[in-house]
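Technical note accompanying the year-one report. For the benefit of new consortium partners, we illustrate the data format agreed upon in the data management plan: each record pairs a sequence with a structure-token string. No post-processing was applied to the example shown here.
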Amino acid sequence: MKILNSNNRNFDKALDNLLLQRKRKVQSNSVSVSSIIKDVKKNGDKAVFKYEKKFNQNKIIVPTSNQISKSIKSLDKKVKDAIDLAYTRIHKFHSLQKFKNISYTDKLKNRLEYKYVPIESVAIYVPGSSASYPSSVLMNAIPAIVAGVKRIVMINPGFKGKQNPAVLYAARKCKIKEIYSIGGPSAIAAVTYGTKKIKKVNKIVGPGNAYVAEAKRLVFGTVGIDMIAGPSEITIICDGKTNPDWVAMDLFSQAEHDELSQSILISIDNQFLKNVQESINRLIKDMPRKKIITTSLENRGLFILAKDLSEAAKISNFIAPEHLELSVENPNLLLEEISHAGAIFMGKNTCEAVGDYCAGPNHVLPTSGTARFSSPLGVYDFQKRSSLINLSAKTAHSLGDVASNLAMGEGLFAHAESAKYRINKKNE
């Protein structure tokens, strides 16, 4: 793990360079991703099949109901029960988020409103192939369900024609009827532009690797997207009083996602950083995804020594991490100094992993510093609003005069005349 000391004169520049290197790496796939999107837009299913065969050795694009049921039967009951419990907790939390319509009548009897309606169709991207993320099904589909979305499509890459049974069970739990065994940029393009087999959607949500994130960025505008989510990252602020093994494992939990994942530990105790490094060295040998974790920590991982917790908070705000653990004795006090983070985990007993699965709040979060202006996925991402304006005859005259004067001041004659027609009785 690289170590930076905040007391060093070039600390800010060194930290910024390390963060920028990762961002550039994440965004470096633009050309290849763009060519895949153009291919799918032009050639439809033929191109989708080609990329599935190339990247996932997959020939099954649309699994049958029987194939899905057979796969689900193989799932361990303990996993099913865990998915059921997580569904209940996540649904409960998100059911509190739904916006209500706003209606206001002013003194002149004008009625002004906001009307919220669900987006008609969304595609949820669930990472797959060599990995299994039933939690991503729940986190993406449940807020859409609460919002009232009528058509929810799941795109999830299988491997050699097989999708993960836990993912399929979670999809069935969420009553998702359209499931496609596709992934990567070609899947994003397919639901953006539509093919003969796959009908296009209005919005795409869900996390993915760097290629998926770049694909979502490129199709934004043709469809809506939630955010550029991925690869994963965690920052931990620790006062040195947490078990170093716990902290090491929390760093592993994000590093095992992807070689581009980033795990950062900020501490005010230099000896504690050494203790965590020792824990990393000892525990890494037992990790099934050791190679990915090691590459992530060596290339993107970082230890930062801060002079105090206030400075640690400032550094964290500069990073604006996806996940932030406040592993300190008084997390509520430190929270007052935190401005930018996707999800914040309070105290040493609150590990990020529980947030990933069953705490309740969403685990689809802004990454790469976008927590400065973005929020976790929620019900609000699956609703849109229209404004309703209903003017009385009296106000049409009085406000019409105001609008006409403003329009003339902007040089927009037709606007002014449109407003005047409501003023001039002869035009009624």
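Partners are asked to follow this layout when depositing records. The chain has a mean pLDDT of 93.
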